[in-house]
Amino acid sequence: MGHDAFTALKRGSATGLPTSTTTTTTTTTRGRTTATRGKQIKKTFNNLKLTILCGFVTILVLRGTVGIGGLTGSPDADVNAQKIAEETNRILAEIRSDDEPSDPNEPPEPDINPNVTYTLGPKISNWDYERKSWLAKNPEFPSHINGKARVLLVTGSPPKPCDNPIGDHYLLKSIKNKIDYCRIHGIEIVYNLAHLDKELAGYWAKLPLIRRLMLSHPEVEWIWWLDSDALFTDMVFEIPLWKYNNHNLVIHGYPDLLFDQKSWIALNTGSFLFRNCQWSLDLLDAWAPMGPKGPIRDEAGKILTANLKGRPAFEADDQSALIYLLISKKDEWMDKVFVENSYYLHGYWAGLVDRYEEMMEKYHPGLGDERWPFVTHFVGCKPCGSYGDYAVERCLRSMERAFNFADNQVLRLYGFRHRGLLSPKIKRIRNETTTPLEFVDRFDIRHSTRGGQSGL
Amino acid sequence: MGHDAFTALKRGSATGLPTSTTTTTTTTTRGRTTATRGKQIKKTFNNLKLTILCGFVTILVLRGTVGIGGLTGSPDADVNAQKIAEETNRILAEIRSDDEPSDPNEPPEPDINPNVTYTLGPKISNWDYERKSWLAKNPEFPSHINGKARVLLVTGSPPKPCDNPIGDHYLLKSIKNKIDYCRIHGIEIVYNLAHLDKELAGYWAKLPLIRRLMLSHPEVEWIWWLDSDALFTDMVFEIPLWKYNNHNLVIHGYPDLLFDQKSWIALNTGSFLFRNCQWSLDLLDAWAPMGPKGPIRDEAGKILTANLKGRPAFEADDQSALIYLLISKKDEWMDKVFVENSYYLHGYWAGLVDRYEEMMEKYHPGLGDERWPFVTHFVGCKPCGSYGDYAVERCLRSMERAFNFADNQVLRLYGFRHRGLLSPKIKRIRNETTTPLEFVDRFDIRHSTRGGQSGL
To answer: What residues in A contact B169, CB-CB < 8 Å?
Structure first.
């Protein structure tokens, strides 16, 4: 099923997999002796692409160099440059390579026994009580501040440099975008660059991470997972947490797609919130068993494909597994799950990025829905991987547009905006004055949100 | 003086320029018709290096590809790969290029008149009063929270992808490191990716940015500039703001180097704090006039080189200009400047990165000085530029070590550490338990710092 898995994974991402994490899979599996043939083919394609890419860049840049009045560099400069290039490549190769000397004191990787259900860790059964008493003992770490629940936004990317060099630049822009939103709305951020669990690599990595953060941050009420390829595009909108007082999982999706059609894209696991409570730990435990890499994940994939509408044949992914769990154990879980679609907690990019100009003309930030999407999620783009389901150019352009569309909302306070949605350059939108505070009162989103609507 | 300026700029950064921002200069000036010959030579060298780098990567990756059981890809895969590569290059070129259609509504760039002193904006003279009354009117945005002054950490990097592809990966690791420190210590972050002022490009860009942030964030008491190539390496240490109650600028340096030797590296402008007050606005105004690109900056550079010990001949940089201002107008400014060297507000990397193992053996975080440096600053490395003063390999290794050294202090709460200071991989340092909260009380830095020493 190797080749099926490869092509399926490809088509799969086109229709709803969290891509940043899919990329992680690629990274993790690179160089593994246990790699399936499908993975090997994929890896070969990736390397091939990187090869050709670099060839082109070489020509491109060489043309540029010759363009600038010939090669003015002296011979030693050439030598010097060559030395630096060699060194950079050595380090690049070393950092990318997987063959680090593993610590001798370290226990060998446990072999997963397919007959024993995989668990995220020792069963914790009294978390609500433990957490409550901890909060009582630590009043300086309240779970609510001025009546607002404490939220921790969690995102991340592979530990190693992207296969596609420009990928890291967009990861940087993506976290800058999240830093801005979270500063404005008083949300803390954890950016993960590590693989906590070898078995749950790839798009499954978020499960052990979320569990770990719940247990290490009892002061946090909500843990919000957001893929690295999702950008905030409404800097004013705030999640209406009051709506979810009786729920423990908030995820974007459509109940009819979920229960009537059993569609494998009924929910999107690129952006969801878990309440820090026993129920969430239990759901994570029920969700995880299909995750372990290798035979378990491969076999589980067949079950998911057989039961979910539209799902191509490939290894089990976290999104399909959650959908399958909620469908098959509806009575057990659904009363605490809020399937949200009144705003774009996850907004599929393809339908949104071309409408930004129209939105700016007709509407204003703070709406969060199709009029001004809260989150634009670049499902299927894989900027960090060297393989994408969409034309790379369209993805990069669209991400640049989304970033600048959002950044304009941030720059407004400072009196600037981007020259265009495709331009990293900015321009003034008002002159400097001797009375700058009037603009703070008018344009600081934190003030305007308090006043309800923003006028942005 | 073109060639002088180039070689000088190179030597210069080797001995103390904020390199990330130096890189910005390179980026900004690329393709400018007004570029001096020195800049052109530099640009040509950079392109040449990128060319050769890509050549090597091509060979490197091609070898890797062939290594994996030959080219298993089908013909259409090749075509597909080639198409993607072409697209990526087009976008890369477009995003890097400077030739965006400038907005017709936009006023033309003002020509700087050398006879008129450059200013950062209209003179603001009553900021202390204005800010004070604003704070009184907006009690929900206090400048102090639980007695702690509100601090805004400001950093940034060029708007465009790095010339050296791995540079963006280290910018990502650098901001992840800052996100961790600032989450733990309740500091807000602004990450700047834009050029606010065309004239003050490069290492001067921080001046208009800091002024703008003071005026847009009256609730912020201290604005802390930190270069993108500086990493927090003591996640426990906190700046002793109480020491600076009577000061408005805190900067790392040595008074004897400053006033006795008039050394151009007496202070380092890679990490410093400004109080949000009239005095700081005035100092920025007095600091800025040497900044405008072109003849003014070039001429000012000659004055600085003539007056500062050890300064090579090159255009005026923000660090030399500040040193020169404080030396020549000591009585006017110094009583409000705190020259700090009791801990590493800026720590020069070369002397520190090889001692991390020794530090871990002998000391613990929270000291902030040579025993456990608060900040490790990679002066002269320019990971984002394609040119560095130190061997690229040594820089990348050292940055990787510094990042992991710091990350171990963060991962401890979660029960992990890096396999080695050069490894992006992590390993467990304790088993999962059913009573995780005991570890929160023991290892959450925010708890330990309250209790004074950390025991980390």
So the answer is: 160-162, 168
